[in-house]
Amino acid sequence: MQRIYIFKRFERFWHWSQALLIALMALTGFEIHGTYKLLGFEDAITVHTTSAWVLIGLWVFAIFWHLTTGEWRQYIPTTEKLLAMVRYYVTGIFTNAPHPFRVTGLSKHNPLQRLAYLVFKLVIAPTLWITGLLYLYYNAWEAWGLGDLDLETVALIHTAAAILMVVFFVGHVYMAFSGQTPLAHLKAMITGWEEVEEEKEA
Amino acid sequence: MTIVKQSFWTTIAIAVVVAAPSLAMAIGSTADHGKFEALDQQFASGPEVTRACLTCHTEAAKQIHGTKHWTWDFVNPKTGQRLGKKNVINNFCVSATPNIAECSSCHVGYGWKDDTFDFSSEENVDCLVCHDTTGTYSKKALRTPGKRKPNLKKMAQSVGPTSRATCGACHLSGGGGDAVKHGDLDPSVEHPDVFLDVHMDADGLDFTCSDCHGAKSHKVEGGRYDAKPHGNGGMTKHGKDEEHSHATCQSCHGDAPMKDEKLNEHTDKIACQTCHIPEYSRGDYPTKTWWDWSTAGTLDVDGKPFVAKDDWGWEVYNSKKGDFRWQRNVVPDYVWFNGTIRYTLLGDTFDPAKVLSVNALDGGPDDPDSRIYPVKVMRGKQPYDAVNKTLTAVQTTGKDGYWTTFDWDTAIDRGMTSVGAPYSGRYGFVETEMKWLITHMVAPADEALGCPSCHAKDGRLAAIEGVYIPGRDSNRLLDLAGYVLVLLTLAGVALHGALRVVFALRRRSRT
Asked: What digits encode the pLDDT tens for the residues A20-71?
């Protein structure tokens, strides 16, 4: 076994605070939607809106970090070993086959992860923010030249994206326990260090 | 028991404080009507008092002549409809004109008994009904004085500004009795506490009606015939913006008075009243919400009209008037309203099989002037012309009126004759509803409605169409698809996880 450092301190901080904020927003968001009662509408709005602003602040830092460190390249999609990964999750994982992807500091996400996170970052999250901000600034639409927009459309897109976020969340949490050992990924996300099988000399 | 010894100076201080209000009154005005020669006489009648008033207030009667309070006649500039008490039909006492000798007890004039009344007469203007400060003025007592004649001299010598009591003499008892008509105006508003109305709170701000319903040249601002659901342009300055009405919340509070910006953003769709008047009839009186004329006319065993009361002492049946229902602490209905009200007037035809709206409120979600506004809905059944399909005026009072004869046919016939409208000779009863704008009885801020009152599936605005209300509205299909998708994902990972465990156990048992 070999230990490599893959998640840097900021990255871990970003991940966990984002996870917390998203959980809070999902919890309060679906309450605002009317799915259930938990905090009460007013408090749910407060928590939801505050979390949204904190998350946006966090993302400003995260985007800056990704650009300056070049880490954004980790999300460039690739088809290399993509099918192998799919095959691994469909069969290999049950038969203890070797993982087709090898984590390194330069390439810490497998091709499926890359794709999933890219969709998360470029589709689900921005859709939620754009519709969420529109929702918040509903009264400014006229002044912004968006008078033709209607709240129902914005609200429904926001809801749809939120549902996809929940789907992502469920899948993501499950995948966190699919490492070499069930807790390997979780440990890595907490400490930064991931244990990987040593590369066999060719 | 402790005896508090009061020093000489404490006594003086208390005396000054107690005396202060009347002192202030005297100092506040530059004229003491008690010193006017014209008023230092024994008046035999109301018009005599008015003549004395007019010796100084030369224009007062002419001003009154131009007001709705005098003419009971008003043309709505928006709809062209001829309104005013003289013309409208309501679902309380139905119509004023056939019963004018009685109904004119709330007219600001002396002697309107029939259509011979002289509307150009200055001395027939009743100054005291609005400006009496003694609290002893009573139109009834003036018309039919008992042993103690009204002391008109004292009233004339102590005239002053209008008060909740003078306006209230008519407006708190509209519809034929205390608290009957409005729901947000009843006799408890004469001395309200802060919980009943923050502005009129007798121990607090102590607003009189005219603090909001300002009157320039006796033209009182505000009113339902040509209403405003919100104050365009925000705050107004008294003196500078006289063309604006002060009888809106915004004229004092502006467009964005709340600390929370999100709440302020609601004001483009929601009237202030909607959140700040959570219930009406919150005082000591219930308001009438149902009046069924069709059941009137049942007499007791002796053939005499009778009255039945509920446990609270409120009439629930009256042989002359039919069945009543009363309600207290009522949650208003909510409707889109842009300020325009269309009345069903005499001559307007309708389908009697449906509930007839006596006054339809205009407005809708796409109209920038519309707000979601609270209303009291008065419901009931009233007579109509079964052939012409029109509402009818009814004579109820007098020796030929329904309350004496219990004969609808002649009562309607006489009523229609007095308003100059045709009557086919066949009547029926149509169910009607009438909307009354709720704008008084403003609760303290912390008793205003909270978010979930409307942002909920079965909230107060459940019936409001045309707006997406978070927490109330959703797309069923999207929600269903979403829940299915999330459940499938959960099932998928559960199955995947279970398979991993099964395979791992099998591997372990093999080795």
From this structure: 999 999 999 999 999 999 999 999 999 999 999 999 999 999 999 999 998 8
Domain CATH code at residue A58: 1.20.950.20
B289 φ, ψ to 5°?
A: -120, -5
The proportion of chain B whose per-residue pLDDT surpasses 70, expressed as a percent, equals: 92
Chain B residue numbers touching A155 (CB-CB < 8 A) = 468, 470, 473
Mutation for testing the A interface, residue in B267, B366, B472, B490 having most A CBs under 10 Å: B490
**Structural domain of A42:** 8-79+109-191
| Distance in angstroms (rounded) separating the CA atoms of residues B498 and B495 | 5
- Quick check: B262 pLDDT over 70? yes
Element (H, E) at B433: strand B427-437
Count of H helices and E strands in chain A? 9, 2
In this prediction, residue B18 carries a pLDDT of 45
What percentage of chain B has pLDDT greater than the value 90? 79
Question: Are B199 and B111 within 8 A, CB to CB?
Answer: no
pTM above the 0.90 mark?
no
Query: Mind telling me how many Å the CA of A133 is from chain B's nearest CA?
Result: 13
Using CB atoms, pick whichever of A42, A166, A178 lies closest to residue B486.
A166
The pLDDT confidence band at residue A168, using thresholds 50, 70 and 90, is: very high
* Per-residue pLDDT, B1: 42
| Stated length of chain A | 202
Instruction: Quote the tokens at residue A176.
Output: 């966190």
Contact A139 B265 (CB under 8 A): yes
pLDDT beyond 60 at B242: no
B243-255 pLDDT, tens per residue? 556 788 988 898 8
ipTM of the complex: 0.90
Q: Does residue A202 sit within a domain? A: no
Kindly state the percentage of chain A with pLDDT values over 90: 55
- Is the residue at A52 inside a domain? yes
**Mean pLDDT for chain B overall:** 91
Helix axes A151-176, B476-510, angle to 10 degrees: 0
Q: Is B365 on the interface with A (CB under 8 A)?
A: no
Residues in chain B: 511
pLDDT band at B179 (very low <50, low <70, confident <90, very high): very high
Would you state the pLDDT for residue B239? 59
Tokens of A75: 């999300």
Interface of B with A in 101-140 (CB under 8 A): none
SS3 B11: helix
- Chain B residue numbers with beta carbons less than 8 Å from the beta carbon of A45 are 262, 451
Cα three-residue angle B325-B328-B334, rounded to 5 degrees: 90
Identify any residues that bridge with B89 across adjacent strands, giving them in sequence order.
none
Locate the chain A residue with the closest alpha carbon to B507: A95
Contact assignment for B496 to A174 by CB distance below 8 Å: yes
Identify whether A29 is part of a domain: yes
Alpha carbon of A46: minimum distance to chain B alpha carbons (Å): 11
Chain B interface includes A97 (CB < 8 A):
no
B473 and A166 within 8 Å at the Cβ level: the answer is no
Phi, psi of B178 (to 5 degrees): -55, 130
Q: Which residue of A has its CA nearest to B495?
A: A174
Q: How far is A69 from chain B (nearest CA, A)?
A: 34
Distances (CA, A) of A180 to A25, B53, B87, B147, B309: 31, 101, 88, 107, 83
- What's the structural domain count of chain A? 1
Statement: residue A96 has pLDDT above 90 = no
Among A94, A151, A163, beta carbon nearest to B485: A163
Give the count of beta carbons closer than 10 Å to the beta carbon of residue B471: 21
Task: Pick A160's closest partner by Cβ from B268, B478, B497.
Answer: B478
In a domain, A87, yes or no: no
